[in-house]
Amino acid sequence: MKLLVTGGAGYVGSNCSARLVEAGHEVVVVDDLSTGHADAVPEGCRLIQADFADVASTVLGEGFDGVLHFAAKSLVGESMQDPAKYWHGNVVTTLRLLDAMREHGTSRLVFSSTAAVYGEPDDVPIPETAPTRPTNTYGATKLAVDHMITSYAAAHGLAAVSLRYFNVAGAQGRYGERHATETHLIPLVLQVATGQREQIQVFGDDWPTEDGTCIRDYIHVTDLADAHLLAIENATAGKHAIYNLGNGTGFSVLQVIEACREATGHEIPAKVAPRRAGDPAVLVASSERARTELGWKPERADIATIVQDAWAFTQSR
Ligand code: UDP
């Protein structure tokens, strides 16, 4: 298939583009490089450097079989301080994408959604049928896009899949996580191991969990890329399928830090700090639906592998 990847110079987008190329698809990346990196775009992909909202119609006019839409604003804290940036960057831009897809008859869409659409869950593991009550603007904008996609699929026959990621981590060779503003636990812990940071702050040790720190479901970016390939290839006309992507196993902040100590051989000093606003205590996915309907099977579920791959990437830079 000829596929357009928005945000293909970013962490998840570049990993997924590499997987699509490997599977034999033709990939064109659109990225404004505001947070992505030109050298992360895999070989064999054409890069169009532009804000997707400005060029959606022109680019899709070339003729594509499908779009994988990664380009988005994704910092929770920033979304609370500057909501307009998120409603425009995530919702308005995706609306333009959907209209351009309709205009040019592009039939398939895979959208990067997030566990943040669920907010504080009643039960874990979280199935796709759980109530959606986002606790931050970022999650609200992603949920709004999911609603838009549902209606476009029903009315216009779009073949759409939303993938709700839990905590993406790890790396695949030269495709790894390198954000200018880093907020994620694993890359921050590894920055302590490289000496860029003196210690890691543990946001709260009084949560209702076994060791008192928050539990998350970490998913290897390579497993995530496999799910995108399955999603674009199996999307069905007129249907908006929604899948949670996680391993179904949670690790606490302290367990992640310990795994990083083992992978790096560094003592990684940790200091307990106040809770971070908006953090739920436990977020773990039920990915039964992705396994059953897509035939997805994560191959790198253990935290040691995830951390080792992230560390190999960090060291390579
Ligand atoms: N966390 C932490 N210290 C940090 C960064 C994150 O204790 O410096 C915790 C955070 O509170 C959460 C977990 O690590 O419980 C994962 O956070 P991250 O930002 O990586 O992902 P999120 O779950 O927010 O999507």
Features:
globular; 317 residues; three-stranded mixed sheet; 19% strand; seven-stranded parallel sheet
What would you note in describing this structure?
It is a single chain. It is built from ten helices and 14 strands. Helix content is 39%, strand content 19%. Helix 1 (11-22) links the parallel strand 1 and strand 2 (26-31). The two termini are 33 Å apart. Helix 4 packs parallel to helix 5 (137-156), helix 6 runs parallel beside helix 8 (253-264) and helix 6 packs across helix 10. The strands form four sheets. It has a seven-stranded parallel beta sheet, with helices on both faces. It has a three-stranded mixed beta sheet with strand order 12-9-14. A two-stranded parallel sheet has the order 7-10. The chain is α/β, with parallel strands linked by helices and 317 residues long. The structure holds uridine-5'-diphosphate (UDP). The site of uridine-5'-diphosphate has 14 residues, from helix 6 and strand 8.
Strand content: 15-25%
Biggest sheet statistics: 7 strands, parallel
The percentage helix is 25-40%
Ligands, ions, cofactors: uridine-5'-diphosphate
Structural class: alpha/beta
- Physical arrangement of strands within the biggest beta sheet: 3-2-1-4-5-6-11
- How many H/I helices? 10
Distance between the termini: 33 Å
Question: Which of globular, elongated, flat, extended, rod-shaped describes the shape?
Answer: globular
Extended strand count = 14
Look at the structure and give the mean pLDDT.
Answer: 96
Cα-atom Rg, whole angstroms? 19 Å
Order of helices and strands: EHEEHEHHEHEEHEEEHEEHEEHH
Give unreliable regions as ranges.
none
